[in-house]
Amino acid sequence: MNFRSAIGSLFEHCQRTLLSSLGVMVGSLAVILLISVARGVQRDITKQVNDLGVNVLVVIPGRIDGGAMFSPNLAGLSYLSEADVAKVRRVPGVLTATPLMFVGGAIRYGDKVSPSTFVIAANSPWFQIRPVEMAEGRPFSSEDAAKAVCVIGSVAKEHLFGQASALGKEVLVNGKSFKIVGVTRDKSNDDSLFSMGGFENVTIVPFDYLKAHVPNPQVHRIMLQTAPDREPKALVAMIERVLGERLNRDTFSVLTQKDLLKLVYQLMDILTWLLTGLTSIGLFVGGVGIMVIMLMSVNERAKEIGVRKAVGARNRDIFRQFLVEAGAIGLLGGAMGLGISAIAALVLSQLTPIHPLITLDTVALGFFVSVGVGGVFGIVPAMRASIKDPVVSLRSE
After folding, report:
1. Last residue of a domain, which of 221, 247, 273?
2. Are residue 145 and residue 220 in the same domain, yes or no?
């Protein structure tokens, strides 16, 4: 009876109901869309990390311990060297290893430039650690180690050459000329948020050639591939011990793919909860709007309350009716917020590199929060209605 009365009242005053739910709709839209964008970004990051290949370990300069996301030494000098690469390559269970150097500067071809392309220097084992499918040409081999050659990604190729072939063309990196011997094939996630900075928008040059032509070359990372029958995590201690023979333990870290994702997810979770907290202000404002309008409704419906009490309705019946109305308004706002979030997510997926991921638990959270906001902010109006004197209420006009 209380439920039917509450729903009937909402339909009777549909315009007021819609206006009351707008605030909750905005807050629900912000929370659902924000969480969905964060989930989509996490999915893209996971794809990029997994795209490194199977059974991969990464040695980085600086110490990351105890769940810490950053190390001050990461921005400083790398103490890693080619000698360290040779040492870890001899560790039982390690199939191969290669140094990695981050090269600054854009890649150019004539008057065209691809400024977002990431240039790295690696040895030929890089293509064993991270297998690639070639659209044109081939990866460079150990025989090309001292040659000015390069392999470019599909995004960089599109920027510089369009539909024309890139094989044999020479591009400039930091003013030095490199001949293109291969182009990697497009992948299905080329339009993701991180494809422009991922492995589809990269140029790889031989590490041995670059170190001979760059002053003070550094090894920024050591990439390792472990044997399929060896759990990468089990080799971390052995690699740390080998590197610790020369390096201070605080100058490097050995990370698995799971470790890399854990660090990224920690940062993403902090940002997501921070921004969710900020956008929840919209839900609070919506809740206050529900409370104000419901309080006005209590005064307007005083005679209705008096009649219901006169025919036997108890205080708790009136309380439940108004509380159900407030919760239903919150539910309506949440449903509208979800619908607009789905439309916004579709538009973002079609027009931008961002691909929001709306999951069942996100939808459930949105509805739970919306109904909760309506219920919490509906308690005061419900209490006000339930304690009204029926005689006084019947005299109201």
Report:
1. 247
2. yes
Tell me the per-residue pLDDT of 269-311, one tens digit each, with 9 for 90 and over.
Answer: 777 777 777 777 777 878 888 888 888 777 777 777 777 777 7
| Residue 225, beta-bridge partner list | 56, 96
Confidence of residue 180 (pLDDT cuts 50, 70, 90): very high
> How many domains is the chain built from?
2
d(Cα 80, Cα 59) in Å, to the nearest integer?
9
CB-count burial class (<10 Å; 0-12, 13-18, 19+) for 167: middle
| Dist CA 271 CA 279 (whole Å) | 12
Residue 336 lies in domain: 2-47+265-395
- What tokens were used for 260? 């890399």
The reply to whether the predicted model has a pTM over 0.70 is no
> Is residue 165 left, alpha or beta, with left meaning phi > 0 and alpha meaning psi from -120 to 50?
beta
258 is a domain residue: no
Residue 257 inside a domain? The answer is no
Ramachandran category for residue 55: left, alpha or beta (phi over 0 → left; psi -120 to 50 → alpha) = left
Checking if the pLDDT of 12 tops 50, the result is yes
- Same domain for 183 and 112, yes or no, is yes
Name the nearest CA neighbour of 202 among 132, 155, 165. Answer: 155
Q: What is the pLDDT of residues 118-129, one digit of tens each?
A: 899 999 999 888
Considering the domain architecture, whether residues 189 and 328 belong to the same structural domain is answered as no
Q: Rounded to whole angstroms, how far apart are CA atoms 214 and 216?
A: 6
| Pair (330, 238) in one structural domain | no
Give the chain's end-to-end CA distance (angstroms, integer): 25
> Do 229 and 315 belong together in one domain?
no
Alpha-carbon distances, residue 274 vs 35, 92, 168, 271 (angstroms): 11, 44, 50, 5
Whether 308 and 219 share a structural domain = no
Final residue before a domain boundary, out of 197, 219, 247: 247
Same domain, residue pair 233 and 85: yes
The whole-angstrom separation of Cα 201 and Cα 156 is 5
> Do both 193 and 324 map to the same domain?
no
> Is the model's pLDDT at 69 over the cut of 80?
no
CA distance 337 to 23: 10
Q: Is the dihedral of CA 288, 273, 338, 326 positive or negative?
A: negative
